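New to this. Comment on this protein:
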Amino acid sequence: MSIGSELTAARERADMTIEQLSAATRIRTGLLVAMEADDFSRCGGNFYARGHIRAIARVVKADPAPLLATFDAEHAVEEDKSRREERAAIKGPTLHPARPRWAVVVGAILVGLMGWGMVRLFTVPSDVEANASKTAAATPVVTTVTPKATPTPTTKPTTSKPAKPPVPTKTKLTLHAKGDGSYVTVRDKKGKRLFQGLLGTGTTQTITATGDIRVSVGVPANLSITVNGHTHSTKLYRFTAHPNGTLTKPE
């Protein structure tokens, strides 16, 4: 499991809501939701992120050591990668082989084209006369045959059954923020992140994906949810939106 999933599971085992954990740790609810979604970019740096992890673990009675070890391992890989890219950027200039002299090649091609044009200039009249004499000597006679009228077949009217409406395969999710808004994370059925951020008061976010859409919210009461034209309100901090317009609690 990821760090965010471990934090969420520990909070749920402690039977605490996001608001209760925020009051106990003095960490904003939006930042807590982001950390549970594995987004530590809002912490202000690795030092502060480690401090938040320790504070949350202390309140929910969890061991912070494995969480900090996982955090340090993941972010050490990112720092090593950035150092390698910086070393590659400061390498010395690369010497390229000398390019061929294209002016000489283009000049030779132009001279050849001019010579071919002069030859054609003096031979075209005789060729035109020869072709004209051949055309005058062998003019074919074309006989037009009038086609017979084809009788129009009598067709019987066919009755077609009305087609059944197609079963929807895509989910269109619209989130409208009210009150103080809420921090939202949206993923598709394969776990790919489609949207993550804070929806302020009066803002609307629409996401369309094939199949189910998984949603995590900080304050469910501050959101109005529409799924394929069906409007919902929910108290769930995590739910799944389906193509048939329904919401369910994830298993």
Q: What stands out?
A: Confidence is low (pLDDT under 50) at residues 91-96. The domain at 3-86 is CATH 1.10.260.40 (434 Repressor (Amino-terminal Domain)). The CA atoms of residues 188 and 213 lie 5 Å apart. The beta strands are 170-177, 182-188, 193-199, 204-210, 213-217, 223-227, 230-232, 238-241, 247-248.
